[in-house]
User: What shape does this take?
Amino acid sequence: MACVAQRLTILGAAMLLGACAIIPKSTGPVVPPSSATSAMLLGASAAGNLGRSALDRADAQGALASFRESCKWAESKDDKSGLTTPADWRGVCATARSFSGDARQFFADNFTPVRVGDGKAFATGYFEPQIVGSRTRRAGIEQPVYAAPDDLVRCWRDDIPESERTGRAPLSRKLADGRCVPYYTRAQIEDGALAGRQAEIAWAADPVEFFFLQIQGSGRLITPEGDVIRIGYDGQNGHSYTGIGGVMRERGLLGDGPGQYAGSMQGIMQYIRENPAEGAALMRLNESWVFFRELTGDGPLGSLGVPVRARNSVAVDPNFVPYGAPVILDLDRAEADGLWIAQDTGGAIKGANRFDTFWGAGDQARTTAGGMSGRGSALILLPKSAAARLPKR
Assistant: This one.
């Protein structure tokens, strides 16, 4: 492991493990830390100073640029985790906007490291796929790319008891008579449930590549003429995400043994292509379907509505990690070690220390993200005013 603790020389390895806030790991349903066992800050002064020698300079500089872009959200939106308030971010963000020095010092001066739960992190990777596509249907490019349809709304269905109707209503399909029913599944959409609705914004050449583009949540369609159509997340059909890699592992299809496939995106795709009938059925087990809109401007957009940046942006569970917060990962995958900014989330990103690192576009990004499965530790950097509210032990 390329240990981040070795680079955080001012904190020291012992301080990294013991001199930060600890938010105990929740049990049972996923709830914000403020609703779970209370957090504790270990040692009033022990959180210390990250210092200029603590982080890689270029890594910190990129993270600062992404942090600035996240500030508009952090300063104005409620934090689901309960760890921060908009007021905690305003002073830090004002400093970030005018800061022109070594970015490492900015993070050292303005944040306190916090460990959420046991701090044991698991990180995967995602990227911006580039696949063959077109604005119009043509021979060999026949996989529809749909925008969110008009009948996809949040409403309470008859099969949901009144006693369970709390919070936001689920995504459903509203019928002409006003009733709400579950929206079409992946299988139903693939079988033509949306055909003739004029909901197509583009077409893709390869259904398998498009399936994985949906998992990524954004991507680029490259036309035969070389034009680029950038598409981004525009909604989801309300059905739960099922990771087909987990299903394959349960069935003994992934591993290092004879006849097994590599436990990476590349290995999963190889299985689907070599076993087309079984692969098509496997993909349909993931009933979730992602709708898209065409994007203009810079970069794919994360959940905050700002561009996610290669090697700087990470997807988190906002019930535990505030959007906009810096995150330090120390994993057994050295390429993912360092400083990231929480700017996105995803259907599979659940839990206090679950992260999805963003690697950009292109072949190298695809390879790195597709094979990313890292374990280690995570620290969340909170504004000092937010960390000061945590109980001290």
About this structure: Residues 1-49 have pLDDT under 50 and may be disordered. The radius of gyration is 22 Å. DSSP finds twelve helices and 18 strands in the chain.
